Amino acid sequence: MENLSADFLTQVAEEFDTPVYVYHAEKIAEQYLKLKSAFRSSKAKFFYACKALTNINILKHLHSLGSGLDCVSINEVHLGLMAGFNKADILFTPNCVDFNEILEAKELGVNINIDNISILEQFGNTFGNSYPVCIRLNPHIMAGGNFKISTGHIDSKFGISIHQIRHIERIVKTTHLNIEGIHMHTGSEIKDINVFLMGLEVMFSMAGRFADLKYIDLGSGFKVSYQHGDKETEVNLLGEKVAEAFLKFEEETGKKLEVWFEPGKYLVSEAGYFIVKANVIKQTPATVFVGVNSGFNHLIRPMMYDAFHHIENISNPAGIPRIYTVVGNICETDTFAWDRTLNEVREGDLLVFYNAGAYGFEMASNFNSRLKPAEVMVKNNKAILIRRRDSMEDLLRNQIL
Prior knowledge:
Layout: H1 6-16, E1 20-24, H2 25-38, E2 44-49, H3 56-65, E3 68-71, H4 74-82, E4 90-92, H5 99-108, E5 111-114, H6 117-127, E6 133-138, E7 160-161, H7 165-175, E8 179-183, H8 194-207, E9 215-217, H9 235-253, E10 258-261, H10 265-268, E11 272-283, E12 288-292, H11 301-305, E13 311-313, E14 321-327, E15 335-343, E16 350-354, E17 374-379, E18 382-387, H12 392-396
Parallel strand pairs: 1-17, 2-3, 2-10, 3-4, 4-5, 5-6, 6-7, 6-8, 8-9, 9-10, 12-14
Antiparallel strand pairs: 1-11, 11-12, 11-16, 13-16, 14-15, 17-18
Helix pairs in contact: 2-3, 2-9, 6-7, 8-9
């Protein structure tokens, strides 16, 4: 699917002002259908990892496509229910939460994924085998595009170590817990499908220890392209390999299991655009800066993860290419791009950041008392406001004078 055109994005900016996030609904559908097709030979279920982007209109759109929902907080669970998801299609995968949050999820009736020994034991002692759960295991596999988004290595806070399986078994035996799923997630932006296949072998080696197992959840971390030459996860090849592996497991054990995935970035990243305005062009002895009307308070990925976002000047596409460092208006260094070639940028020009749908607005803040931007969804070539821009009233809403 083609990107939204520069003319269309310019119209959106003129109508809704900048900075503004724009999400292309048809691109999200395209990505979802790619996964459905890739894993068509398996009994596969997909749960959108809504931590990537939780605007309720995005959730409703994913629900309309047939997706389930993966939630990491109880508030995300509530948003999912409000968006129309059935409780059976919601997976709650929290980390380091109070047991009361687990209890609330149980009362709501959603699937619960437990990732530490303490909570597992408390849950078993409280509910026994009356409420099935999933266990998140740490397979001790290093993967992901950045250490900060690697979640399956030995020093990670996520999951219960596979080396603690005997401890898990003792808890299950003592409390009669019903374990219907086992889960792993090794990180984000995984290019090599062998990471998933290695993890699957680990999961298969654990599967025989749980008599009532119904599914194996392989998490996600599918890589999308952020810049020219990026290698994406070969989901079609992975789909073939996963189907073969599950068929072999069924032949060897007699168990036919479902495979679950939790794609987040893969579904919404490429559907997102972030439009900003060039406030100033500032030349120093060493650098030419483009200072824009945003900062890491709106898009933190470049500063937090050294992430690359392709940037275009859609106001002057025929301009002479020049080298700029694109920076924000925050009181700290907030560099979006060093020494980036852009068509000549003039004050007032519109710049577009591509692949901004995941962990863009979702990680935004009001740092420097700046207002959060608006969000717009494009569906059937129509731009619809799905979140109004912050106002001063929003900054003061919960403050007590």
